[in-house]
Design a protein that fits this description.
Number of domains: 1
Order of helices and strands: HEEEHEEEEHEEHEEH
Number of strands: 11
Shape: globular
Structural class: alpha/beta
Strand order of the largest sheet: 4-3-2-1-10-11
Radius of gyration: 16 Å
Distance between the termini: 36 Å
């Protein structure tokens, strides 16, 4: 039990969480001590669970944009641990985001080829693997589908 508690305390919190629908994205801005979300209307239960995951308890997340984000109708861009991150809200922004971002998160399918972003999470990734967590510094992504595994008793959209 002690090892489990230490694992929870020592494991770094993700920088970004993306819901399975892609409509809710949360960015943990540790420098400001706040969590910013794309919407306060959709998926409130998920948002509340994420706030507890980030260690903020019952605090309410702030609505994007955060002070260090550059946002418009097509999406938001920001730097996190030296990595360029783009949240793309519309396919019209994918071309520029693919050229700029190290990490690209899109609510729609990314159809730009080639897309130079090292990490791409789009509608199909979310459909196949559910919610995603991103650690910018390590350029690491983990999805619910990866944690669940490919077992006969697990319901999967990719089969």
């Amino acid at each position: 039990m002690i090892a489990g508690v230490l694992f929870i305390v020592v494991t770094p919190r993700p920088d970004i969480l993306v819901s399975a629908s892609g409509k809710l994205v949360a960015v943990n801005q540790t420098s400001s001590g706040k969590v910013y979300v794309t919407t306060n209307r959709a998926e409130k239960f998920v948002s509340e669970a994420w706030m507890r995951q980030f260690g903020y308890g019952r605090a309410k997340p702030e609505r994007m944009p955060a002070p260090d984000m550059d946002c418009d109708d097509l999406g938001c861009r920001f730097l996190k641990d030296g990595k360029k991150i783009a949240l793309s809200f519309h396919p019209a922004g994918h071309q520029d985001d693919c050229a700029w971002a190290d990490i690209l998160i899109a609510e729609d399918p990314i159809r730009i080829q080639p897309c130079n972003s090292a990490i791409k999470i789009d509608r199909f990734d979310l459909w196949r693997n559910g919610s995603h967590a991103v650690w910018a510094k390590d350029m690491r992504v983990q999805s619910v589908g990866e944690m669940r595994g490919d077992r006969p008793w697990v319901v999967s959209n990719s089969r």
